[in-house]
């Protein structure tokens, strides 16, 4: 049986706004002799600045500069068994206040559809949806009905809330058409240029999904990154008491509460990005998966290529994860649950 990597990216520098990377870095990157040392520098930037973001920059330089989506896909594919299936998540970054994109989202989706036609058994394309785009529901319908896209990707820190009116139309369409939603759920990372980090983080708070899940009980909804590495750290290090207000709770414990409540059977969380802090988080994951309710709602994903480190690449990640959590749990999060999430199996 093939495994599923439920969260990965293959978009390239052509799809990100021209001010997404600091201009100076973009310019320096054009010089092939500087690219390598620059990569090293970015990857090892001091922790006082936004390390997470620099890490992403350095991966952009390394993986996607002068490459096509196909090149990037071929790289990630080479780390996995040949029959592995990948949920590919495009990004619509035109409204994040960081300038123009060389190739717009229509072109990014078109390239992805063409690539899926070359790898029909491997690529499961999702549509990047931004409620600020005109006719976004129409765009989604065309992608689903004509181009056979299988899900929706949302990234609220780019500057919108999950209860955005337009998104309600997207949820309604998705529920009606058996289309799952993937939403970014971690602190830090990419955000709209003009909003504060706090505000961007509040857009990604797992609590925001409660109302949506109540109103759309058949909509399948995945919280990407399971709250994120920082919140897993908080879960391990900071005490909280059950009766205290929600603010003191880590996002991880918020998500676990939602899962264990039994009220949100269509809620999922993927371990992408977060699991790359492997030493700490793989053991915690193993313990969390002992709970059958939690175990039935977790998806395997990697966030390739946002996190890839040369010393800890995708192949090593998926193999070591299998070893730590065991074959039985791995099968659940990488085979059984992804099919439920995608709506291709109805097994409980
Ligand atoms: Zn991602």
3D structure, described in words:
It is built from 15 helices and eight strands. It has helices spanning 23-29, 32-43, 51-64, 69-77, 105-118, 136-145, 165-176, 197-203, 209-215, 229-237, 251-261, 278-289, 292-295, 314-325, 327-342, and strands at 4-8, 85-88, 123-128, 151-154, 181-186, 221-227, 267-270, 298-299. It has 348 residues and is α/β, with parallel strands linked by helices. It has a single domain (4-342), classed as TIM Barrel (Alpha-Beta Barrel). Zinc ion binds at residues 7, 9, 89, 224, 303, 306. Residues 7, 9, 89, 224, 303, 306 line the site of zinc ion.
The largest sheet has its strands arranged as 1-2-3-4-5-6-7-8
The outline comes out as globular
> What's the tally of helices?
15
Structural class: alpha/beta
Write down the overall mean pLDDT.
Answer: 88
Q: What share of the residues lie within helices?
A: 40-55%
Largest sheet: 8 strands, parallel
- Report the C-alpha radius of gyration, rounded: 19 Å
Would you identify the CATH H-level superfamily? Metal-dependent hydrolases
Span of the ends, CA to CA: 18 Å
CATH architecture: Alpha-Beta Barrel
Q: CATH topology, anyone? A: TIM Barrel
Give the C-level CATH assignment: Alpha Beta
Using DSSP, what is the number of strands?
A: 8
Q: Strand percentage, roughly? A: 5-15%
Q: How many domains make up the coordinates? A: 1
Bound ligand species: zinc ion
What is the element string, with H for helices and E for strands? EHHHHEHEHEHEHHEHHEHHEHH
């Amino acid at each position: 049986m093939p495994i599923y990597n439920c969260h990965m990216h293959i978009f390239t520098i052509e799809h990100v706004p021209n001010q997404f990377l600091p201009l100076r870095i973009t310019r320096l990157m054009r010089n092939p002799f500087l690219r390598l040392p620059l990569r090293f520098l970015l990857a090892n930037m001091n922790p006082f600045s936004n390390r997470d973001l620099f890490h992403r920059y350095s991966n952009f330089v390394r993986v996607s500069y002068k490459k096509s989506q196909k090149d990037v896909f071929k790289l990630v594919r080479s780390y996995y068994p040949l029959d592995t299936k990948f949920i590919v998540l495009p990004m619509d970054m035109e409204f994040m206040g960081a300038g123009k994109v060389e190739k717009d989202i229509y072109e990014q989706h078109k390239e992805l559809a063409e690539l899926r036609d070359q790898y029909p058994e491997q690529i499961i394309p999702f549509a990047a949806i931004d409620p600020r785009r005109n006719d976004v529901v129409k765009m989604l319908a065309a992608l689903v009905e004509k181009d056979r896209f299988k899900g929706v990707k949302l990234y609220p820190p780019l500057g919108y809330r999950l209860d955005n009116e337009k998104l309600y139309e997207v949820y309604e369409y998705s529920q009606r058409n058996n289309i799952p939603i993937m939403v970014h759920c971690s602190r830090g990372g990419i955000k709209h240029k003009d909003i504060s980090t706090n505000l961007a983080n509040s857009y990604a708070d797992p609590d925001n999904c409660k109302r949506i899940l109540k109103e759309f009980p058949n909509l399948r909804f995945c919280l990407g990154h399971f709250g994120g590495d920082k919140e897993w750290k908080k879960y391990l290090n900071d005490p909280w008491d059950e009766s205290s207000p929600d603010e003191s709770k880590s996002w991880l414990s918020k998500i676990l509460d939602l899962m264990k409540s039994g009220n949100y059977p269509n809620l999922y969380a993927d371990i992408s990005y977060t699991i790359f802090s492997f030493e700490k988080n793989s053991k915690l994951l193993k313990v969390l998966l002992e709970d059958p309710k939690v175990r039935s709602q977790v998806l395997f994903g990697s966030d390739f290529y946002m996190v890839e480190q040369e010393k800890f690449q995708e192949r090593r990640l998926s193999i070591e994860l299998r070893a730590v959590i065991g074959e039985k749990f791995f099968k659940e999060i990488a085979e059984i649950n992804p099919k439920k999430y995608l709506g291709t199996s109805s097994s409980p």
